[in-house]
Protein 1
Amino acid sequence: MLSAAQGGAEWALSALYRDLHPSLVRLLLAQEPAEGEDLASDVWVDVARGLGRFQGDESAFRCWLFTIARRRLIDLRRSRARRRTAPVDHFIDRPDSRDPFAGVETGEALMYLAALPPAQAEIVLLRVVGGLDSYEVAAVTGRKPGTVRVMQKRALERLAELMSFDAEVHVTR
Amino acid sequence: MSSWSDLDTEMERLPLDTNTADRLLAGSIAPEDAPPGYAGVATLLAAIGDSPGAEEPAGASEAVASLGAVVRSSQTQITRPSRRSNLPRLKLATAFVTVALAGTTGLAFADSLPGAAQSVASSMLATLGVTVPGTNSNAGDHPNVRGKSSETAVTTSDSGKGSEISELATSTDLTGVAKGAAISTLASDGKSKAGQNGRTASTHGAPVDTPDGGGTATADTASGGQSSDGTATANTASDGHSVAGSDNAADGLSHGP
């Protein structure tokens, strides 16, 4: 399919787009809510331009796609020189605060991620939304696989702490 | 009634090992199977990773069509640079060949090429139906036919001249300018004029008499007696010391050899 896509076959490009675009948009929206859609479009244009020179299997293609997305995100943040949005306090005042986990929606879950250090949140998103394993995440982020495994462990511990704190706040109300 | 999440928060959270964290992120641990304190995290991760399903992304068809166009145009751009890089060279080479042919043909028409070149140009252009003059008067000493490596080298009347010159140089009784003139004349077949303008030591004229002791008198005469006046003036001014050196020299007290 990749070779067909490299030749410009629309059926192959369509299959790639339908398979990966939802994850790409979710990943970018999670980190840049206002710019995610535009960034995703830019990423696909970059992919289309470089597809003729790409070498590798579909796993490598997925890594490549998310690497481009990551670089686009970094460029955007550098150009704007501002930090991400969505502080964790928004969760405390969410509409249904009686049960912190009942009916949790994706958008709300992503807000929990926003409370993590950006590098940890990025790794969790690449793992969960991007569907990459720890080795692929290491390749995309330019870290060692062992480092990624430690960072993702700390990210989950931090998430558990945040959710536990949120539940305690709910109980005391 | 307590929900499962309440129970989760009430449980003491155990340290998480990296393998369990990896499995949680991979979605291979259900919330109810998660370690104590991590059921909520497992639920959260499931919510984050919840795919919108097989629904069509908005504007997918247009996006894919645009991507296809970009991919195809990129492929064209990838193959173009090699053509681009060769084109200027090809143009340059073509221009050079054209100019060279036009120039050579023009010179051939003007009968201005050297002998052999004119002959070659004449024969080559004749095959194209163009008539130009053959070997011309401008050829001079140039051969009017192309040489071949197999042909015998051109012989000259100069062969053996070196040994002849050498013999002259070692056996002649002549010396000085006359010897050089003789050798030069032989080497140049009489074209050299070396030595003809020269003169031997005896023909340079008589030596000029220079009165060694008359310098002072000559200077005195030439200056109308004023050079002696200077000496007398210096002598007077120095109370006779200015001539003391001369006296010392006359008395053999000079430091000179």
Protein 2
Amino acid sequence: MTERRSYDAVVVGGGIVGLCCAWRSAQRGASVVVLERDEPPAGATRVAAGMLAPVGELAFGEPELLKMTLAGAERYPDFVAELEAASGVDTGYARHGALHVALDRDEAAELRRVHELQRSLGLGAEWLPPRRCRELEPGLTPSFNGGVHAPDEAAIDPRRVTGALLAALAESGVEVRSGVEVEEALIDGGRIEGVRTAAGEELRASAVVLSSGAWSGAAEWLPPEARPPVRPVKGQILELRSPDGEAPCERILASERVYLVPRPDGRLIVGATTEERGFDATVTAGGVHELLREAYRLLPDVAEMELVEAMAGLRPGTPDNLPLIGRGALDGLILACGHYRNGILLAPLTAEAITALLSANPVPGPLAAAQPLSSRFGTHMRPKGRSQPGVVA
Amino acid sequence: MRIELNGASCEVGDGATLADAARAAGVAAGARGVAIALDGEVVSRAEWGATPLPEGAKVEVLAAIQGGSEGWELGGRAWTSRLIAGTGGFRSLEQMELALEASGAEIVTVALRRIDPDAKGSVLDVLDRLGLFALPNTAGCYTARDAVRTAHLAREAFETDWIKLEVIGDDRTLFPDAVELLDAAETLVGEGFTVLPYTNDDPILARRLEEAGCAAVMPLGSPIGSGAGIRNPANIAIIAERAAVPVVLDAGIGTASDAALAMELGCDAVMAASSIFGAADPTAMATALRLGVEAGHAAHDAGRIPRRTHAEASTPEQGTPDLS
């Protein structure tokens, strides 16, 4: 006999985005269930460094993304305060700033170029000569050419945020079901009305939220035309631990090829490679070597640290690097995916957008450009003569 | 089943598509500047394979003339564009697609080590959609053995025996290791590969690679990704003058004038990657490089005036008719 249950929303995917969406929706009185194939924190959330760094992540030609990441960073302190109050869990949020260092003349030229872009956009970032950099971070390598200090950048521990979200969800009476795989969408006349799990259980819902990270584009339980254009982009990352429980730097440190994120408990995250290798999530000797070599060039103290873990995760990439947040290609399907490098940063804003969508309100301002409209992809990024599958025409 | 191909009757198999008609008309896979009309309607390249031919279909295969520049040959195949593009370092897939389209490139390199050819919705899908030839390279290899093994993997994965051979000496300069490079080139040529080696701006090594049977030589202008232009133009000119195989300037291009200079020095084509994807506006830089290559090629063929020390009035006074 098939068991049937009915919800306002079924959230498919228990990474930070799915959990945030569920929590915010439940706060608005919606009945929600989260289905996670694995165990939260799932997918990229489990391995993410948790940088909240719109200035350092800035790239040429991505003004829409900058608007989103700035809004996301601004939102974070309130989100953290509310979540910590609701859960009683410390999220490890630290607004300690970031220092991007140029290790030689070539890197200095490139860093100055990006710094000019940062300044032209009015972002908080200051060029510092080496001596000033080492006043901030005495552990830095003695020989380098200067750096850019971005004092407003922050970081958070994604695993702790997940713990806090799970506690807050439990408090709100939301079920988070681990080890549950979705097998089929229940579709009636172009409308998704729920999902069937691999165990044969049917979960009916007014809306199905797709927050399956890098797997969103390969969600075989959705018809092909409803799968959004999301691909996995592999990243390898390391966790080091200081013998004395004190991290070897106070703020995020970065060079052209590596970033280091200190945690309050003395751990140090070293990231990350970027590889187009499909769903391969192998940790390679070359990847680890490169990360350690570059970390050592930047901050020689890392040599003394314990290598706790080497991990690989899959970022959910989209063709234009912007997330996909909005109504999907089936009635009742809502997309909350494709956050690429910014899932931790944009999760709180995404959750607000999803609660708006669940109440049939429009996606709020900062994320308006994240709506999965096919016009967004122009005449490119789609099979010729056809519209891009997975988005609204 | 019979169709009409360019005005002549032609027999094709049942279930044949426009792609089969293109082959029957002698269009090489990946060749650009070709348009096909089915019963008077132009069909885009991406649809050729999915467009069935009805009995008696009228198919016109037209080779477009692009900017008046004649083609060139590499590895026994004809190409129109003289700009080869890389695919590493793009900021987004969309940006990569726009820039590659603007570059006009027909051949693009892909690093086997960094790109899984089976990954859906990724780099290879974009190249397929644009109809580009994906040329695998051995980037990241430091020994001949490693490069040969990577070439074997690339042949399996990309179903091509073309390989852009890179054997790197150290990771600070990324200069080629001449000894390992020649060793790997000889092995791969012996195994039937079409070998396109990234080499130093050394005319003797270039000649040795050519003698080993490489299909081209690809001398560097300056270190990979440096954007430092062509540091030894005289050597590039010597290589281009003496080579019997195509010479492709590889590495060091920073901007359009570098690409133009390479062509003026007698290169057959130019390879660019970092200069495109590192630019603030990659699409605009791709366009600029395409035009730079065309300009330099035209200038090379035009026969420039010699450099003089002193002025020479462009309108000589002697012998000028007095029209007043």
Protein 3
Amino acid sequence: MSGTAFLDMTIYAGLGLLSLAFLITILRIIIGPTLPDRILGLDMLVSVGIGFIAIVAVKTGFFLYLDVAIALGLVGFLATVAFARYLLVSATKHTGEPDANPEAKP
Amino acid sequence: MKTVIFRTIAPVLVAIMVVFSVFVLLRGHNEPGGGFIGGLIAASAVALYGIAVGVEEVRKALRVDPLAIAGFGVLLSSLSGLVSIAYQVPFLTGLWTIFHFENTEIAVSSPMFFDIGVYFAVLGTLAAVALALEEDEDQK
């Protein structure tokens, strides 16, 4: 097996595995019993998207995509943090205590 | 937020984001990037820092009001357009000069200063919005 054929094979295997991860993550977001589960699912979705971008960069040889992946990583983290803050604020409003367990109020 | 982990890691992340935004800004003329997207990344860095350490700290770290930064950006963009008066060409015409510095060519142009102005305008506006929203949440 030549190097190019092996690279092609790994690229398609990686795309397949990432698609599977995407579907499972979406399943978790839909059924996720509490709000923190769903937020972590969305964070996971961003990570899987970064993986997709990296594989497409390798497949097309267009390495500018990696900058897109860096930007998505930085901004996706901000989204997760903002969600966590929203959880904290709503938990504080509900119980009047800043360190209340956020899972108590989905 | 009162979490030690986030408060420790946030300054590092904010530094990376600001450096990346400047990189995107300066690459913008010939490749994907530019003032607007660079300003967005810098503004999200400011928002992240505001969530981590509180709005007052961020206002202290910025030293000037975010809206003043936005105003400075608009001023810089207009001035880069007005340079064309001296060369008798229409407003906002792109003017280029190339400096030589130890075997490297450094291209300085009016579009670059226009882009830097856009960067500051976007950064200032969105930072003001983000800080105002976070301040609102703090008061509740």
